[in-house]
Amino acid sequence: MEAKQQVLEAMKKAGIPLNASKIVELTHLDRKEVDKAMKDLKKDGSIVSPKNCFWQPK
Asked: How many domains is the chain partitioned into structurally?
């Protein structure tokens, strides 16, 4: 499973907005991988930010 999918799945399972540090903790991915995946997910509109630095699936 690629990093983007892992990040999105972790967000969906959590059911609450998450910050990057929490996603790293849940997925066991490297922080750089999580940051890149989140950047791509933001760009394609898959995730939204309900509050500063926290993200959730759209």
From this structure: 1
